[in-house]
């Protein structure tokens, strides 16, 4: 009876059983309500933008794997995350060909050139977003208001702009709350901000749904809670100080927290494990740096929004943070630095 | 002396304990196998030197092989019988080593030979010698010769004798049963150990999942013995010497150092019981308690098994499920997978865990490191396994050792356990450590040659 072939492997022979693809899938589940809300608030146009970026991301990853003669890595689900995230950061009425191009760039230049999943320095979705911001400054700042009538039956005139053509911008464009404040000093109601019934990128408007998605990931132990907490706290405190100094010039800290892409960035982008430091202490520093940069760019920068650049700079910092912040190894006296 | 803050170490993991199948079952005597296979390598150090010849009749407990120098221990006969063959025998590492095939006399009474007793009035040196003569090694699994560990180096002194009753490996319950059933032997052992080390106090460290054992021992502490029992929260790898010292005493063993550097000697509870049982009779170790468990085993439990009993015989007796797939010696975290059932139970075998096809996952896909930091949060000595893993893949072994404290890794496997990308981190580190050691030895030889 005992002449079976035994399996041999090295210890440990048991594992916790949460694998990378499962983590990635859960991030997608956490973002789905956001996609649904974007569709509800901004209609079919927003959904099409998200589908375009996601399709572009997955196809690009698959294609690049094929031409470099590697097994395709789309099964780890991470390309889908990049696609959805990029789609969520774009204006709902963004031309689809531009969105698709953004998805291609995100994967090709944001991820693949670094060696694929795990090796990318920057969050790929943000690399795509930066490319689009630089290439199509008008289209990417053409916001449509939320809850437009007819949003489920017709798409924005810009959506189906032919490739390499400049879109016709709808007459009914709405300024984002951040732009409204920056350029016209108009403050938006905080309740509208939290619920997301405002102009903005497809997925960044509803802080409430973003927070719920984040709480789910934290509960599943698939996201480091320190990332959003450190960023949001820094933004709140730092902007709060300015608000107290001069309430007419500076926005209130609540407005800062709930406006623009901060919530989406802090919860779903800065928390990307690959681009953030690996030690808890390192993450506090990373979050603090991002929070600080967000406030600096928003208050003094030429653009109303700074979350994207702040996170990219944080990504760039994190390898250095990991080099400097190293826990004392058990039984050693000083930190071994080099 | 007592640090009230300390009750566990930092980091670590909580794998499912899986101890309930066996921790309630008393230790049972295992039958004597018709043939036992006794390898001469059952401990760390020089192999034992065979002193019997083929065809010779031996009595249970009789000396079969003597220690080959200080860093070695003798081996005693586990059964009364005849030496059938002296040849190369298989071991779990796959290596063939010198060994003995011993055929038992079916009708022998299996009485154990008496030796020259060592009393508690003996000098520390005499006790250490007696411990070596009894063939005692660390029964927790390391199989390091106990007399070497107990020898206090010149210029150092031992303050605390720490008894390791942690048993943090999932599935294993041998120490648990030994503490419940062999309290008197443990306390006698402590007397010898206190004498040998000069320690002033004894602390028995036990994890909270063995509260019954802690209560049992506490009630039986002899009034003249300076013993305290301390219960600590369950966490892996608390049974490692370093982690245990931190949990119980709040001290850290210096990197590259030994427990004695913080005036502590750590001995496993089952080893202590063995000392207490054997020394008064001058006997040698000829059997040990082994947990046989896992979903693939029919008659799970703790068995007192003669050293040298073939694994095949053991599994036949306890019964295995038809879809048996993996067999480990030791626990699932640090145990070694068995490839050949013709190896035997040795002094360091604390458990046999058998998984069937149902538990064994299909080949796990290895993903790239996503720097999630789970390993960093798990590593009990605060290494960065993620970074080390990347360096290991690039075979940058010297950098791993010089800049990232590779040599402090004691291979507990917590990093591999938590890694979502299924990167075989601890296997990388074993390989890296062995490479670094080889390179260091080569450098030394070069330096000597000059």
Provide a quick synopsis of the model.
The complex is a heterodimer of chains A (338) and B (450). Chain A is mainly alpha-helical and 338 residues long.
Give an overview in words:
The complex is a heterodimer of chains A (338) and B (450). Chain A has two domains: 19-174, no CATH class; 175-325, no CATH class. Helix content of chain A is 55%, strand content 0%. Chain A has 13 helices and no strands. Chain A has helices at residues 20-42, 44-67, 78-88, 96-110, 124-135, 177-184, 190-195, 207-219, 226-245, 253-258, 262-269, 280-300, 307-324. In chain A, helix 3 (78-88) packs across helix 4. By secondary structure, chain B is an alpha/beta fold. Chain B has two domains: 1-29 and 119-360, NADH-ubiquinone oxidoreductase 51kDa subunit (Rossmann fold, 3-Layer(aba) Sandwich), CATH 3.40.50.11540; 374-449, no CATH class. In chain B, strands 1-14-13-17-15-16 form a six-stranded mixed β-sheet, with helices on one face. In chain B, strand 7 (81-90) and strand 8 form a beta hairpin. Chain B starts with 27 loop residues before the first strand and ends with a helix. Chains A and B meet through helix 1 of A and helix 8, strand 15, strand 16, helix 12 and helix 13 of B.
Q: Can you summarize the main beta sheet of chain B?
A: 6 strands, mixed
Number of DSSP helical runs of chain A: 13
Order of helices and strands of chain A: HHHHHHHHHHHHH
Order of helices and strands of chain B: EEEEEEEEHHEHHEHEHEHEEHEEEHHHHH
- Beta strand % of chain B: 15-25%
* CATH topology-level fold name of the largest domain in chain B: Rossmann fold
Given the helix and strand composition of chain A, which structural class is it? Answer: mainly alpha
The number of helices of chain B is 13
* Major protein interface: A-B, 45 and 71 residues
Q: How many structurally independent domains of chain B? A: 2
**Under the CATH scheme, which class of the largest domain in chain B?**
Alpha Beta
Q: Which stretches of chain B of 5+ consecutive residues score pLDDT under 50?
A: none
Rounded to the nearest angstrom, the radius of gyration of chain B is 22 Å
Taking the sheet with the most strands of chain A, its summary is: none
Shape of chain A: globular
**Could you give the distance between the termini of chain B?**
49 Å
Q: Give the strand line-up of the largest sheet of chain B.
A: 1-14-13-17-15-16
Cα gyration radius of chain A (Å): 21 Å
């Amino acid at each position: 009876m005992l002449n079976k072939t035994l399996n041999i492997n090295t210890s440990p022979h048991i594992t916790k059983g949460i694998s990378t693809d499962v983590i990635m899938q859960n991030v997608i589940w956490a973002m789905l309500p956001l996609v649904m809300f974007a569709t509800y608030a901004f209609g079919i146009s927003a959904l099409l933008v998200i589908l375009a970026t996601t399709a572009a991301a997955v196809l690009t990853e698959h294609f690049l794997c094929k031409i470099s003669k590697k097994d395709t890595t789309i099964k780890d689900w991470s390309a889908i995350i990049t696609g959805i995230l990029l789609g969520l950061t774009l204006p709902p009425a963004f031309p689809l060909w531009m969105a698709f191009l953004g998805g291609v760039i995100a994967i090709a230049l944001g991820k693949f050139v670094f060696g694929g999943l795990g090796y990318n320095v920057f969050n790929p979705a943000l690399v795509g977003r930066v490319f689009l911001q630089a290439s199509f400054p008008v289209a990417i700042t053409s916001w449509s208001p939320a809850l437009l009538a007819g949003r489920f039956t017709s798409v924005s005139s810009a959506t189906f702009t032919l490739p390499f053509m400049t879109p016709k911008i709808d007459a009914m464009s709405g300024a984002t709350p951040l732009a409204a404040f920056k350029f016209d000093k108009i403050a938006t109601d905080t309740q509208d901000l939290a619920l997301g019934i405002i102009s903005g990128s497809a997925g960044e408007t509803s802080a409430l749904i973003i927070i719920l998605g984040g709480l789910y990931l934290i509960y599943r132990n698939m996201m480091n809670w320190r990332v959003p907490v450190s960023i949001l706290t820094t933004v709140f405190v730092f902007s709060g100080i300015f608000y107290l100094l001069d309430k007419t010039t500076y926005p209130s800290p609540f407005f800062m927290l709930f406006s623009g892409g901060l919530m989406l960035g802090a919860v779903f982008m800065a928390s990307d494990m690959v681009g953030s430091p690996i030690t808890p202490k390192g993450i506090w520093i990373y979050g603090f740096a991002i929070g600080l940069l967000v406030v600096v760019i928003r208050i003094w920068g030429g653009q109303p929004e700074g979350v994207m650049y702040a996170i990219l700079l944080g990504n760039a910092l994190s390898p250095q943070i990991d080099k400097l912040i190293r826990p004392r190894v058990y039984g050693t006296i000083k930190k071994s630095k080099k | 002396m007592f640090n009230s803050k300390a009750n566990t170490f930092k980091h670590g993991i909580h794998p499912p304990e899986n101890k309930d199948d066996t921790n309630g079952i008393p230790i049972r005597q295992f039958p004597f196998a018709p043939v036992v296979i006794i390898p001469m390598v059952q401990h760390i150090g020089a192999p034992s030197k065979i002193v019997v010849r083929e065809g010779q009749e031996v009595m249970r407990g009789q000396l079969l092989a003597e220690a080959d120098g200080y860093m070695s221990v003798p081996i005693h006969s586990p059964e009364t019988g005849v030496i059938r063959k002296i040849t190369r025998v298989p071991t779990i590492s796959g290596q063939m080593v010198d060994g003995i095939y011993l055929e038992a006399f079916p009708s022998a009474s299996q009485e154990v030979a008496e030796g020259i007793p060592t009393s508690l009035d003996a000098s520390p040196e005499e006790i250490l010698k007696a411990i070596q003569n009894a063939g005692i090694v660390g029964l927790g699994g390391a199989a390091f010769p106990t007399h070497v560990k107990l020898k206090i180096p010149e210029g150092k002194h031992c303050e605390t004798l720490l008894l390791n009753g942690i048993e943090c490996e999932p599935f294993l319950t041998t120490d648990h049963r030994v503490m419940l059933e062999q309290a008197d032997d443990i306390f006698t052992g402590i007397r010898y150990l206190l004498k040998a080390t000069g320690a002033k106090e004894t602390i028995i460290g036990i994890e909270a999942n063995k509260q019954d054992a802690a209560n049992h021992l506490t009630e039986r502490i002899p009034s003249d013995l300076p013993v305290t029992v301390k219960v600590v929260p369950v966490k892996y790898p608390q049974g490692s010497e370093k982690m245990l010292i931190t949990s119980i005493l709040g001290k850290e063993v210096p990197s590259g150092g030994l427990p004695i550097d913080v005036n502590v000697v750590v001995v496993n509870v089952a080893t202590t019981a063995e000392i207490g049982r054997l020394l008064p009779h001058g006997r040698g170790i000829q059997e040990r308690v082994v947990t046989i468990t896992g979903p693939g085993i029919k008659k799970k439990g703790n068995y007192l098994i003669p050293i040298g009993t073939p694994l095949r015989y053991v599994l036949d007796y306890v019964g295995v499920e038809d879809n048996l797939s993996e067999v480990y010696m030791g626990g699932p975290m640090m145990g070694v997978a068995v490839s050949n059932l013709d190896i035997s139970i040795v002094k360091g075998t604390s458990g046999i865990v058998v998984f069937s096809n149902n538990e064994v996952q299909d080949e796990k896909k290895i993903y790239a490191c996503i720097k999630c930091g789970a390993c960093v949060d798990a590593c009990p000595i605060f290494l960065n396994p993620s970074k080390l893993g990347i360096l290991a893949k690039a075979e940058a072994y010297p950098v791993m050792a010089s800049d990232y404290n590779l040599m402090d890794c004691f291979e507990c496997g917590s990093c591999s356990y938590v890694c979502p990308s299924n990167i075989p981190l601890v296997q990388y580190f074993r390989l890296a450590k062995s490479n670094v050691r080889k390179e260091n030895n080569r450098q030394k030889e070069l330096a000597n040659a000059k």
